[in-house]
Amino acid sequence: MSDNSFGRLLRVTTFGESHGPAIGCVVDGCPPGIALAPGDFAHDLSRRATGKTRHTSQRHEADEVEILSGVFEGRTTGTPIALLVRNTDARSKDYANIASQFRPGHADYTYLHKYGIRDPRGGGRSSARETTMRVAAGVIARKWLAERHGIRVRACVSQVADLRPRGFDWDAVEANPFFWPDASQVPELETFMDALRKSGDSAGARVHVQALGVPPGWGEPVYGKLDAEIAAGMMSINAVKGVEIGAGFASVAQKGSEHRDLMSPDGFASNHAGGILGGISSGQPIEVSVAFKPTSSLRLPGATVDTAGQATQVVTTGRHDPCVGLRAPPICEAMLALVLMDHALRHRAQNADVVSLAPTVPGGRG
Amino acid sequence: MSDNSFGRLLRVTTFGESHGPAIGCVVDGCPPGIALAPGDFAHDLSRRATGKTRHTSQRHEADEVEILSGVFEGRTTGTPIALLVRNTDARSKDYANIASQFRPGHADYTYLHKYGIRDPRGGGRSSARETTMRVAAGVIARKWLAERHGIRVRACVSQVADLRPRGFDWDAVEANPFFWPDASQVPELETFMDALRKSGDSAGARVHVQALGVPPGWGEPVYGKLDAEIAAGMMSINAVKGVEIGAGFASVAQKGSEHRDLMSPDGFASNHAGGILGGISSGQPIEVSVAFKPTSSLRLPGATVDTAGQATQVVTTGRHDPCVGLRAPPICEAMLALVLMDHALRHRAQNADVVSLAPTVPGGRG
Amino acid sequence: MSDNSFGRLLRVTTFGESHGPAIGCVVDGCPPGIALAPGDFAHDLSRRATGKTRHTSQRHEADEVEILSGVFEGRTTGTPIALLVRNTDARSKDYANIASQFRPGHADYTYLHKYGIRDPRGGGRSSARETTMRVAAGVIARKWLAERHGIRVRACVSQVADLRPRGFDWDAVEANPFFWPDASQVPELETFMDALRKSGDSAGARVHVQALGVPPGWGEPVYGKLDAEIAAGMMSINAVKGVEIGAGFASVAQKGSEHRDLMSPDGFASNHAGGILGGISSGQPIEVSVAFKPTSSLRLPGATVDTAGQATQVVTTGRHDPCVGLRAPPICEAMLALVLMDHALRHRAQNADVVSLAPTVPGGRG
Amino acid sequence: MSDNSFGRLLRVTTFGESHGPAIGCVVDGCPPGIALAPGDFAHDLSRRATGKTRHTSQRHEADEVEILSGVFEGRTTGTPIALLVRNTDARSKDYANIASQFRPGHADYTYLHKYGIRDPRGGGRSSARETTMRVAAGVIARKWLAERHGIRVRACVSQVADLRPRGFDWDAVEANPFFWPDASQVPELETFMDALRKSGDSAGARVHVQALGVPPGWGEPVYGKLDAEIAAGMMSINAVKGVEIGAGFASVAQKGSEHRDLMSPDGFASNHAGGILGGISSGQPIEVSVAFKPTSSLRLPGATVDTAGQATQVVTTGRHDPCVGLRAPPICEAMLALVLMDHALRHRAQNADVVSLAPTVPGGRG
User: How high does pLDDT run on average in chain C?
Assistant: First the structure.
């Protein structure tokens, strides 16, 4: 169905297949007057890109963004912004053999059941290549959130397999290829990833995403809750199997007296809620945790069936990431930014006239 | 904003406050010809209701459903079905004092920031009373899914505080007030709950939800994925802080060779995916896990601020659940059923003509 | 499908059948803080009601509105406002015989084709009784538009059969039962209507609707244009067969030099555009004209088929309006008000920060 | 706001400005398996194109469609279909002077009020160039309607200024540059158009659109009525000021006994309803009439104000159509086809299981 759009007032529609001529998106609803140039997209697309280190897929995509519409003399005009990225390193021959079999853990089987037809080249529409355009659209949202509201969105990898950060320093995150918050563990991670790659197997990862500076009041009860739409946005990313807000599943084992974040004129005493109460932002940092499964594209053979229903073995020889979660932080940031900007617009639609009667309790740091 | 509706083709709009005259919903998009009578709602509403045991809130609501429209001579006509439930046991005086202070962990503070006005009686719109209408709407979805597709949706509590089921028997679930799958632990749970209630504190819970019999092909890539919308639906329920599909967060520590569900003509070898691949159902059971935080309404005093911004203490003396998760299984079932029915309709809109070319791999039991 | 809602940010969902227990609506997205009481609805509902003069249907409905939610201490809270009107004068026996035949010009045939089932009592969902709730919802929009923006919405009947106003005086409109702008023609209209009623036949009417005080800038290109949504809103009213904006069909025979509304610092020289350019309001009065067909419920026999496909004759003996257009002005006003309020909210969502660089050209009088 | 999309299940999003790098669209929700190639678009785009005769604008656009996604090995896959058309003959210098003044009858004034910024090159987003992509998207809808349902959509010009067809022959329509149904009048039209062009003025036109073969049952009461959405679609086309269904405004002067279309087992006796009853198709031809105003881009000087609010004169020297309605039939066909295909999908979503109990009354010829 027509479900390739995300957001209500800031509406992003993506299109394109992994090995088709191009991928792209239309960002509709962006306010006018925002400075925007093709160069704005390079940084985040590069953070997400493959082929930069030996720890990711060796596909090399230029990921150059062409702005097709919606910008005049360097500023958005309020009309739809179309962004286009040509696919340049699409080796479809790598995928010739998978047209006739279903890779376990992939969408091959379900797409064919759903549509009766599928584009097998690189996974077609189900490829994570689609997330490139989420990151591109997210650039616009991040710019607007930063310029209008001073909001900062950032993410790190907070678990790989069973490795967890021993220390936590946001400044370390962008200084290593693993988005890892403890610089001292980077050699350990490199060793782990090298061994993983050689084994032909793959690993899962957990990504932590945070937004700082979100004012209280964003989020739309009861089905457009901020956390509900964050959950949908994150779960719509390829390979995601779980989403937590604030304390998440740990809150099951908490007492109410421990979980509830007490308030005083000096601020909130804790942030187990993850910055959202009743589906509405509280002014505290928004805290989200996302589980990425290990990719199912392995050099290790796996039992499956072919399109004739016969038993067979699949071995993936294409260029794949041994840990897709390691490229996910920019994608998670983009999704959180898109949800937040959409909610900023939704909030002011209904509540632009509201004079808040509530005192502001400081939200604290992230 | 106008976000009190859920679903795209089966669209449920709920309305009503905890202590207003009534709560209700409009179910728009239900196919014609489904048998429906007021009595159909009693069973599930009773499973969700308070006041049946000492372990839940002592508010007694009749929860009688009046069908206002959309049904003629006992069958749905394809026009909107409006359901109405009058509030009968609304003791607003219990809440008089909370109008001037913000309960920690509640939506009082965020609602006032958002709207500049709030209905403090029983939490108003942010009360879990709203979920009554989700359960009512879910009854229609469950009927349709069962009759048309033989689908069964069920749920249990799979964790309370740090108590976990030792055994697992679906048949035990409906035979105790805790939706607990191991009958032998019921006395232990009763002791725990009695102590909890006396302590004035509260506990979290984890709910497991399952759908059996969903055919392969439901779900709409890439932003209307089945798992994305399940996540949104669950996260929109009061007190939910996390959602997992299949292996969920455990998949982070899995190897790809362990996580991917191998296939053979005899069926899938496992179900770590939780029945969803690429956002589309695979024919395996849909498996979802949901984290409910401990309620923040406690008899234990907690620091907060009042509406003038001054420090104060809050003590909740109203009738509250010490573990809201214990009443959540029918709500989670309803949300899953609503998502599934919506997706069934969406799938056939686009794909009614599709002749599936894929062989069917048995999905196995739940 | 789920198409019983109107509007994007101010979203009105109506439900109910002509002879069911009740009709109602949910107004979602109304800003908080608007004063609202049950009595606010009486005036407009009475203007639309049947049974006040011999020129309309003799059905007597109390049309008392109960506010079920969304209002606290006399003010809207930003949560959904549910309104309920019980049906009290539903004589279903009047309609017993039409269950087995299709009234020509009615929706009987198409509803049965669509749904395979229909509620024949008074036309069920296809009855103009549904428009009661449009008028009720419109009351909220009119209040908000008047209070926030000083906007006034009004309508008159500008043609009945081939009778047209000779003079035009807005002050006359509410002083006669025909919403007619020339008081001197009222006796002529009474004579015409008496003869029409006695003949058993019916007449069409044209309604002119106007909004004064709409600021420039409302309307969303290119598919949410203000005129596009006004057209949809009007055409969704029962019996409407045509909609014009400004000069409408007369613009076909105009020269461009005649049609285009010249501008000067003193204002627009004319208003052939009807207050909308490029789908966006220009600050001039919004001018809309709507064609209502003559009702097909006649005492004169008409050839049709029965539900078995056999030829038969239909004679309508129920209580019907000989000219449905005579009750339509309040409905058209409501639809225009709902579209305008929705667009006001949409405009500020995207453009709240816009500093208009355009000089304001006076829009002139209506 | 995010209103550059049309349709609910077949959802078309267009983007692009008249003189930007490209225009394009994303068609989301198209069923899989439809044969589609770039060449399919040429015929209809050529019918709409400028520069073919002296009677239209002399802008020459190649209008070559690139399919960027959604098609694999010549068939749609069910994923979004992105279409791209590069702008090649954009002479922005023609428009340099209009950046500082408001053309009367154009959207210059309203866009600047709305957005505080505008792209003046060729009207930017408000240019009729956007309709190119409607025609392109409409090609897909027309193919699907024809192949699946045998539906044919066609249009003609039925009035230019005060010239009306004396005879009516659908076969004549595509044989002259005026889409005129009476071949004998073509010389008269040429003379009229030549004189009009020389005068520097412009003329309006009326377009008649028809769909043959639509089965009974399409259309979604009460706000998604087939006629309501046709009206919205037509009114969203540049320069449209009025829409009629069936008898349209003529129904005002009809008696009910004349207007209602009597039925017999042999078929409907007339089609004043225009093929739609209660918002649902009746199986008769869908008949729609659309009013196009005369373009406001004239060589004749006109009074206006500049962006500083000072009085000035505007003279349009760019390449413009003296009668935009003459290029509108393919656009109106496209919009009708898009609405119909969307409704076909919506109908089967809810009603795929319906066994119609209604006998079928022949709908007759167009």
Answer: 94
Decide: A217 and A356 in contact? Cβ < 8 Å.
Answer: yes
How do residues A38-60 score in pLDDT, each as one tens digit? Answer: 999 999 999 988 777 888 887 78
Give the closest of D148, D345, D350 to B350, CB-based: D345
d(CA A23, CA A16): 4
CATH of the domain at D108: 3.60.150.10
Quick one: pLDDT at residue D365? Answer: 46
Under DSSP, the state recorded for B203 is B
Is residue C125 marked as binding? yes
The per-residue pLDDT for A365 is 46
Does residue D93 surpass a pLDDT of 70? Answer: no
- In this complex, the residue of C13, C75, C118 whose CB is nearest that of residue B26 is C13
**For chain C, what is the domain count?**
1
Q: What residue of B is the nearest CA neighbor of C120?
A: B72
Does residue D364 belong to any structural domain of this protein?
A: no
Give the per-residue pLDDT at B124. 93
| Tokens standing for residue A146 | 């930063």
pLDDT tens by residue, C2-25 = 999 999 999 999 999 999 999 999
Residues of A whose CB is below 8 A from D8: 2
B366: pLDDT strictly greater than 50: no
Q: Which residue has the higher pLDDT, D140 or A317?
A: D140
DSSP string for C251-308: GGGSBHHHHS--EETTEES--TTTTEETTEE-SSPEEEEEEEPPPS--SS-EEEEBTT
Contact C351 D222 (CB under 8 A): no
Joined together, the tokens standing for residue C272 give 């052939």
C353 and A221 within 8 Å at the Cβ level: the answer is: no
Range of the domain at B208: 5-351
- B98, B120 contact by CB (below 8 A): yes
Mutate which: A12, A26, A87, vs D, most D CBs within 10 A: A26
| Percent of chain D with pLDDT strictly greater than 70 | 96
Alpha-carbon B266 to chain mean position: 34
Angle between helices D108-115 and C329-351 (to 10 degrees): 60
Contact at CB, C352 and A353, closer than 8 angstroms:
no
Chain C residue whose CA is closest to D269: C303
Would you call A300 and B254 a contact, using CB atoms and an 8 Å cutoff?
Answer: no
- The answer on whether D296 is annotated among ligand-binding residues is yes
Residue D92 annotated as lining a ligand binding site: no
pLDDT at D27: 98
Cβ–Cβ below 8 Å for A32 and C221: no
* Residue C97: CB atoms within 10 Å: 13
The span from the CA of D57 to the CA of D45, in Å, is 15
Report yes or no: B301 and A262 within 8 Å, Cβ to Cβ.
no
The interface predicted TM-score of the complex, written ipTM, equals 0.97
- Residue A171: inside a domain: yes
* Domain-located, residue B195: yes
pLDDT confidence of residue C95: 65
The distance in angstroms from the start CA to the end CA of chain B is: 39
Q: What is the pLDDT of residues D214-254, one digit of tens each?
A: 999 999 999 999 999 999 999 999 999 999 999 999 999 99
Chains A and B form CB pairs within 8 A to the count of 418
Which residues, including other chains, have CB under 8 Å from residue D65's CB and lie 6 or more apart? Answer: D38, D41, D42, D45, D83, D84, D85, D136
Amino acid A52: pLDDT: 79
Contact B348 D352 (CB under 8 A): yes
Asked if D260 lies within 8 A of C296 by C-beta distance, the reply is yes
Query: What is the tens place of the pLDDT at every residue in C307-332?
Result: 999 999 998 876 778 999 999 999 99
The model's pLDDT over A73-114, given as tens digits with 9 standing for 90+, comes to: 999 999 999 999 999 876 666 666 778 899 999 999 999 999
Is residue D169 in a domain? yes
Q: Which chains does chain D touch, 3 or more C-beta pairs < 8 A?
A: A, B, C
